[in-house]
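Single Protein Entry

Contents — chain, fold
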Amino acid sequence: MILLASVLLALLMGFAVQRGGTCLVAALEEAVNRRRWDRFRALLETSLWVLGGFVLLRAFDRLPMVPMGIPLHWHAALGGALLGIGAFINGGCAFGVLARIGSGQWAWLATPPGFLAGFVLADRSFGAVSAMPVAIPDWLQQVPIGLVPMIIAALLARLGWLAWNRRNGADAASLWSPHHATIVLGLAFLVLFVCVGAWAYTDILAELASGRFMELGLRGLLLPALFAGALLGGWTAGLWEHRWPNPLALARCFTGGALMGLGASLVPGGNDSLILFGMPLLWPNAWLAFACMCVVVMVALRLARLGKRV
């Protein structure tokens, strides 16, 4: 039963990412070129949903043990910068890769092998990141029980606001607007977290690269399910472009993936892991890496925009 539920949840996550066009690079490109922050706010909202879910799970004694994180280190800033450079070269972050593959843009199939190569390079150059101690963070243990009704009320109010906007045409025309997609993404992640523990697909790739595939267990089945969900999302929406790659596109995606894998090893964690896990758990390294990634991507986008004007 848990196996079937976990696979279906991974399918739903991939479906939501593809249908919502979830991608940090796309979100920042929208901010730079159109002065719109909707997609970026939706990504941050995902972390808030997961944060609220962690508090509720803790209050009802359903929160599994979680990694405690590592002390703040400059590696996180460098790793975040490499994540940003890699995502810009690749043309999409970890979420964006799912969305593009789900749309039939096959060049991005080269990005996951690039991730693996980046993780292997980091393991040989810097050594594997030591396993983080597992426990329930102190701040979660000390959350007052009186916050639970407030969190539930805030979540219900947000759902009501989004439903009202959709009914009155104030939101995106599609059911899967960025905010709707990230809500589904966050909630599916929370339930999946209860079922199988901490999980993000870049973390799975990191474990594969370090030869720990025997430790994956059920989580190993979620990676193909996630990509299958993205493909299902693209197919049902009629978005398959069947854009066959050329050698330059394959090289760009592989190189971008390798830089993202190298950066994720230094943080540690890819941008999917940062948004869904590290940032909601208030890890300083996650917030520093995410900020550096955003700054680098925005600078690169502005430079690219200036280059087109010359």
